[in-house]
């Protein structure tokens, strides 16, 4: 029974995270404006086995206001300073910015929800012994 509780908690967490990012990022997908950002620095996060580099970019909006923002998605190898990164930002809040990646903005949240739902279905099969009914 403990494994079912753990699976329910993990599955619920996956669904909650997926729903959160799906809602947050779908706004950017539908209403966001695109901009080219220039990497000018990195924040470095040292882990036990890996080092992660979070690019800090500058970008301009059409009204010529310039913003600097640390991207939430880090990499094990730093992006070269001066390199261009395609961004999508919320025109109502230009500090809400992400890398313009359909995979990250659309596929990942949905995959989290699907994985969490799959986990909950597995728990239901186990708790109600549905596999025994199918035999």
List its traits.
3 helices; single chain; elongated; alpha+beta; five-stranded antiparallel β-sheet; 135 residues
Number of continuous helical runs:
3
For the residues shown, what is the average pLDDT?
86
β-sheet strand percentage: 25-35%
Overall geometry:
elongated
Mind summarizing the main beta sheet? Answer: 5 strands, antiparallel
- Poorly predicted ranges: none
Radius of gyration: 20 Å
Structural category? alpha+beta
Count of distinct structural domains: 1
SS elements, strand count: 5
Furnish the topology, listing elements before pairings.
Blueprint: H1 2-31, E1 33-46, E2 51-60, E3 66-70, E4 84-90, E5 93-99, H2 102-127, H3 130-134
Antiparallel strand pairs: 1-2, 1-4, 2-3, 4-5
Helix pairs in contact: 1-2
Explain how this protein is built.
The protein has 135 residues and is of the alpha+beta class. It has one domain (2-134). Helices cover 45% and strands 32% of the residues. The chain is built from three helices and five strands, in the order αβββββαα. It has helices at residues 2-31, 102-127, 130-134; strands at residues 33-46, 51-60, 66-70, 84-90, 93-99. A five-stranded antiparallel β-sheet has the order 3-2-1-4-5, covered by helices on one side. Strand 2 (51-60) and strand 3 (66-70) form a beta hairpin. Helix 1 (2-31) packs antiparallel against helix 2.
């Amino acid at each position: 029974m403990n494994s079912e509780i753990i699976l329910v908690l993990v599955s619920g967490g996956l669904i909650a995270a997926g729903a959160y990012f799906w809602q947050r990022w779908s706004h950017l997908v539908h209403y966001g404006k695109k901009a080219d950002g220039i990497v000018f620095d990195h924040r470095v996060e040292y882990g036990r086995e890996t080092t992660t580099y979070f690019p800090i970019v500058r970008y301009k909006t059409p009204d010529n206001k310039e913003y600097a923002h640390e991207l939430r998605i880090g990499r094990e190898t730093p992006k070269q300073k001066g390199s261009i990164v395609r961004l999508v930002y919320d025109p109502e809040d230009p500090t809400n910015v992400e890398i313009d990646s359909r995979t990250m903005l659309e596929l990942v949240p949905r995959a989290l929800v699907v994985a969490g739902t799959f986990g909950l279905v597995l728990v239901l099969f186990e708790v109600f012994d549905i596999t025994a009914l199918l035999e």
